[in-house]
Amino acid sequence: MERKDAARQLFMEGWQQKDIARVLKVTEKTVSNWATDEGWRDKRIRLELMEESSVQMVMELIEYQLRALKRRVKAWTDEDPESTKLIERGDIDALQKLHTTIKREHMKWSHYVSVCKELLEWVSVVDVELAKALTDKIDNFLNEKRKLL
User: Fold this and answer.
1) Diameter over CA atoms, the chain
2) Which pTM value belongs to this model?
3) Contact, 6 vs 30, CB < 8 A?
4) Which of 112, 54, 33 is nearest to 8 (CA)?
5) Using an 8 Å Cβ cutoff, are 93 and 56 in contact?
6) To the nearest whole number, what is the mean pLDDT of the chain?
7) Of 68, 75, 120, 125, which alpha carbon lies 20 to 30 A from 97's?
8) Closest listed residue to residue 17, CA positions, set 35, 3, 37, 2
9) CA-CA distance, 20 to 42, in Å (whole number)?
10) Alpha helices per DSSP H over 2-88
């Protein structure tokens, strides 16, 4: 993954330009130019609005599916209280897929960056000097990961 692409990804996830510049070892002006030239700010706003409405729609689908399954189970138990009918696998799979759509469990480069940033923040509370010493090493690690994508 090129630096510019990595910078765009982090920017879209709400990172500040100075942090992006530090991690990618470019100037803040470079990141600012990329953001301005390609209209990242407007794209981020549109993306946030789209993600918000998409998540809301999927949540509504999950709620609908759960209500339908509850009605089905109630009908079964009203019909025969001793019944032990199982919910069909397809219904469970559909719920799982909807949930995965929201959860987004796949690993992104930006996830590496977030975890490393959180680690550095934690280390800085325990040992500021160690955090300073690790910052450059972690940035190098992140850039190596980025190059592999």
Assistant:
1) 70
2) 0.49
3) no
4) 33
5) no
6) 86
7) 75
8) 35
9) 18
10) 3-12, 17-24, 28-37, 40-79
